[in-house]
Amino acid sequence: MAIRAILYDNDGTLVDTHDLILSSMRYSTRKVLGRVIPDEQLMAKVGIPLADQMLDFTDTVEQRDELLRVYREHNHAHHDAAVRLFPGVLEGLKSLHEAGIPMGVVTSKKAPLATRGLKITGAWSYLECLVGPDECPKAKPEPDPILLGASMLGVPAEECVYLGDSPFDIQAGNAAGCVSVAALWGMFTREDLVPERPDYEFDSFADFATWVLAS
Questions:
Q1: How many beta carbons lie within 10 A of that of residue 10, not counting itself?
Q2: In this structure, how many other beta carbons lie within 10 angstroms of the beta carbon of residue 50?
Q3: Number of domains in the chain
Q4: What is the per-residue pLDDT across 90-144, written as a single tens digit (0 to 9) for each?
Q5: Domain range holding 35?
Q6: Of the residues 9, 11, 165, 169, which is catalytic?
Q7: Among the three residues 82, 101, 122, which one is the final residue of a domain in this structure?
Q8: Does the active-site annotation cover 9?
Q9: Buried-most residue among 41, 81, 119, 120 (CB within 10 A)?
């Protein structure tokens, strides 16, 4: 199979922000709602837009908006010190870039902060586009942001790989007609991802990059 382009999820796939997201979720829900929510519930829907996640914790738009404000305040204050790439990502991106494969990111995180993290870690040098909710009103698991990313790379979606670590990533990749690949090193388990029927799954970014270069 010839792979003409790759699109990546961001958090949990390229960048390891699990602890930052969890601490921001804990802080905002405790401060705004005054209660402790189990970690598994706080992290259950990472991968879809944050505003949609917050509706799991409140029924009012006013509280949702305050949760978003407090979350972002905390998250942005700690972001630069906490953001880092998963092992093998920078080396893998470099190898894939040198092989001439165009690559981009499709994320549910707002584009400015996602781009900032990728620049801090050095990954941005190897990427050609980034699609966030700022650019596409429809979000994963809808296929629209992936289709937009593929068009920005100038490659049909069916000739792209989409690599992500959440069920929503696999759902979106499949809906877009991409080759969907599960990143098993991220925030969700193999048991969470396999039922979504990814085309492939890998335990590390290095293994993924090796597979692409051999394809």
A1: 24
A2: 22
A3: 2
A4: 999 999 999 999 999 999 999 999 999 999 999 999 999 999 998 898 999 999 9
A5: 18-82
A6: 9
A7: 82
A8: yes
A9: 120
